Amino acid sequence: MKKQLYLMRHGETLFNQLGKVQGACDSPLTTKGKKQAQQAATFFQENHIDFDHYYSSTQERACDTLEIITNSNHFYQRKKGLKEMNFGRFEGESTELQPKGFQNFETFYEQFGGETASDVQNRMSHTLHSMMDQEDHQKVLAVSHNGACFYFLKSICHHSDQKIPTHFPNCAIFIYTYEKHHFELIDIIDPTSKKSML
């Protein structure tokens, strides 16, 4: 039987709003970010999607997003493996200073004390596989981050002709099936518009 993983990006934060680099560092959800999390909750409710396990990155913006979605009524586990990419000394700086294009992110930040793309990809993959390999995990919700979600998706679709977006709206929902230790992307939903991004 195929299991299901719903992997999400967190809601909008103050640093998102201000155009600041936000990886290992953190900032609070904005009013808009809280509304986006509520819209995600509505999407799950309207589609009768219930989860047996909940996970979040250890970062506050992800935990707060999940707590809004669940109305703080469900136990969840925090996982460091779901954290955003560490951008080293670029943390907190203007996003205008970053190189353009995800191809430039592969190893760029390592020289500034940050992570490589493969670092993020490997820890995301290890964390999500270890979660979904558990027998009682049939339908799981996990809240993570834009870069972390992108690099995990890239690892899944590297043999596919499917074009992968590089940026996702806050609270974008990635729907995967999991069977025989293999993830397959089914859809990416923007809960604000309730539309597929594929």
Automatic annotation (TrEMBL):
InterPro entries: His_Pase_superF_clade-1 (IPR013078), His_PPase_superfam (IPR029033), PG/BPGM_mutase_AS (IPR001345), PGM_Phosphatase (IPR050275). GO terms for cellular component: cytoplasm. Substrate binds at R9, H10, G11, E12, T13, L14, F15, N16, R61. One of its GO terms (molecular function) is phosphatase activity. The active site is at H10, E84. Pfam families: His_Phos_1. This is Probable phosphoglycerate mutase. It comes from Isobaculum melis.
